[in-house]
Amino acid sequence: MKVRNHAAIITGGGSGMGAETARRLAAEGAKVALFDQNIDAVQAIADEIGGIAAQCDVSDAASTEAAFAKARDAHGPARIAINCAGVATPGRIVGREGPLDLAAFKRVVDINLVGTFNVMRLAAYDMSKLDPLETSERGVIINTASVAGFEGQIGQAAYGSSKGGVIALGLPAARELARFGIRVMTVAPGLIATPMLLNMPQEVQDSLAASVPFPNRFGDAGEYADLALHIIGNVMLNGDVIRLDGALRLAPK
Questions:
Q1: Which superkingdom does the taxonomy of this entry point to (predicted)?
Q2: Which residue among the candidates 35, 68, 105, 159 is catalytic per the annotation?
């Protein structure tokens, strides 16, 4: 699928991989709607690229349905949906103060996994009613997991399991949505230089970057955006997970 003149929705669009992907899509001629809980941040990106912004809690059905309605009214139904919204709140199952707070675990799963599914279900429904393109596809959905979904570290019980769920969601979703000509792909980034990592102490950043075999650095949000654009354009990419990690495999801690 070529992105020009097609509507696109990106969650987590106020920063990091979501914001950079929005910039790339807009530069290629897509009509971009950005969703984020931080309305000031996402509005700034929307103003920069000529898109629209919607405040959205992806884990909440009503909030996400309202954001979709705003995007649909402005640009029409989206053929491209990219899930970048997520949190990485750490916590040991058994810590110094007792068992991990269940609400903290649930919040991570609700945003990362339930939120991904919530956006997918709404995007897929809209896409299913569109006319097929010359490639016979009606749309493409890209979900963002993490290498922690494969080898989560100590303290990543919530994050690792939520991202593992995103990975497991991809194939059954792709199989089900194939009848509509809707593709579903998952990207599992490693250490990407987003605010989540760059807010860590410098010595921690240096240690983490040194663990990446090659290239021996953090990934860049632009490299995620490059991959997203390639997925959109390559109709044979469907139902799979692509690791974007420089051959990184996470140690236990």
A1: Bacteria
A2: 159
- Catalytic, 159? Answer yes
User: Dihedrals φ, ψ of 80, to 5°?
Assistant: -130, 125
- Whether residue 250 is contained in a domain is answered as no
**Which residues partner with 80 through β-bridges?**
8, 140
Q: How far apart are CA 18 and CA 163, in angstroms?
A: 17
pLDDT tens digits, 61-76: 999 999 999 999 999 9
pTM of the predicted model as reported, rounded to 2 decimal places: 0.96
Give the CATH number of the domain where residue 178 resides: 3.40.50.720
Structural domain boundaries, residue 74: 7-190+220-243
Number of structural domains found in the chain: 1
Over residues 46-75, the mean pLDDT reads 98
Write out the two tokens for 26. 């807009």
In a domain, 214, yes or no: no
